[in-house]
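Structure (tokenized):
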């Protein structure tokens, strides 16, 4: 017969499990146990407002967490006006669009990724196939493309006219003494009007010594049962060395998901995220009990601490680049943070989608 002490131990365990939205296997299916339900929540980078809305809609329609976030980011991968992800992404130094993506499914502990893949508009779908149909976690380059083709994904030309014009502008400005003409000079010769990069909608002038566009979409979700998934997909740093791989396709860097704790992902300077195992670090801080926002901030402070190269520091000794983290935990708490103020992130809580200001380490001057 159970003693009073046994009864107290058992009910104490139920209380702790309810706080986390999970229960020991011995209590699964037990009668009269009240299971705490989580409010479905999805977070993403600032370019992911449509993505988080779609993800929550897919979840409500019966999709799994991994299917929901992948279908969400597919909207951005297919958008020719987003120059940082998928179709329309800015190319590498050779004018070739190379894409990266990784994802993790919390309930099955599954993971898949592709890097430097060409001709595939939605690399997140190929990463999903890697997870589902192979014993590997990461495929790269030509091998990744051949795998994608074998799985029925069409090979397409991803370089839009807008991205091509911006690449030509960048290439022409590499040197004042080479043989390339800028688009303006070329237009003068043939008597045609010249459209600057801003005419294509973003107002950015690409320069070898100046701004190098970079961007990504990360998307993380938790469902009513506390199950999690994460995905990150990108075209990476504009005009990168062919074959360069950032943090996005690296599990534990560009995104990480532990179904016992939470999920997190990143955008911004990938090299800084890689060498600090960024998204894994965020999840580990949440495992220690930190709120997602505070976990993101602490992981950013680690980047600041280890950034010592003079070429990466401003006059004030702080990083001259930005990194953003996004996170959601098993209870549905969420947060986003950046090294510098001014960033925003997308969130959808049970269908209410909006942009929120990210927390930050430093106020931007």
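Design, position by position:
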């Amino acid at each position: 017969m159970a003693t009073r002490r046994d009864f107290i131990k058992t009910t104490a365990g139920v209380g702790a499990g309810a706080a986390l939205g999970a229960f020991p296997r011995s209590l699964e299916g037990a009668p009269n146990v009240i299971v705490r339900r989580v409010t479905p929540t999805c977070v993403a980078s600032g370019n992911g407002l449509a993505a988080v809305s779609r993800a929550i809609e897919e979840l409500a329609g019966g999709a799994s967490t991994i299917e929901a976030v992948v279908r969400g980011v597919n909207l951005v991968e297919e958008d020719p006006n987003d120059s940082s992800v998928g179709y329309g992404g800015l190319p590498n130094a050779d004018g070739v669009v190379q894409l990266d993506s990784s994802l993790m499914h919390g309930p099955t502990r599954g993971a898949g990724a592709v890097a430097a893949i060409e001709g595939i508009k939605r690399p997140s779908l190929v990463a999903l196939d890697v997870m589902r149909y192979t014993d590997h976690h990461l495929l790269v380059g030509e091998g990744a493309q051949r795998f994608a083709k074998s799985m029925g994904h069409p090979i397409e030309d991803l370089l839009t006219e807008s991205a091509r014009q911006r690449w030509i502008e960048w290439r022409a400005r590499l040197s004042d003494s080479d043989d390339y003409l800028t688009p303006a000079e070329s237009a003068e010769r043939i008597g045609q009007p010249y459209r600057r990069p801003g005419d294509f909608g973003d107002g950015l002038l690409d320069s070898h010594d100046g701004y190098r566009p970079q961007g990504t979409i990360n998307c993380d979700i938790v469902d009513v049962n506390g199950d999690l998934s994460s995905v990150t997909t990108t075209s990476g740093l504009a005009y990168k060395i062919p074959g360069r791989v950032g943090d996005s396709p690296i599990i534990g860097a560009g995104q990480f998901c532990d179904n016992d704790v939470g999920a997190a992902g990143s955008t911004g300077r990938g090299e800084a995220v890689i060498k600090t195992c960024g998204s894994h670090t965020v999840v580990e801080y949440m495992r220690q009990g930190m709120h997602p926002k505070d976990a993101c901030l602490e992981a950013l402070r680690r980047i600041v601490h280890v950034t010592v190269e003079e070429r990466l520091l401003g006059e004030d000794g702080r990083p001259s680049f930005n990194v953003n983290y996004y996170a959601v935990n098993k209870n549905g708490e969420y947060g986003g943070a950046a090294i510098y103020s001014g960033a925003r992130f997308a969130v959808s809580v049970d269908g209410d989608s909006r942009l929120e200001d990210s927390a930050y380490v430093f106020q931007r001057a």
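Reviewer-requested clarification: The mean pLDDT is 85. The first helix runs from residue 4 to 20.
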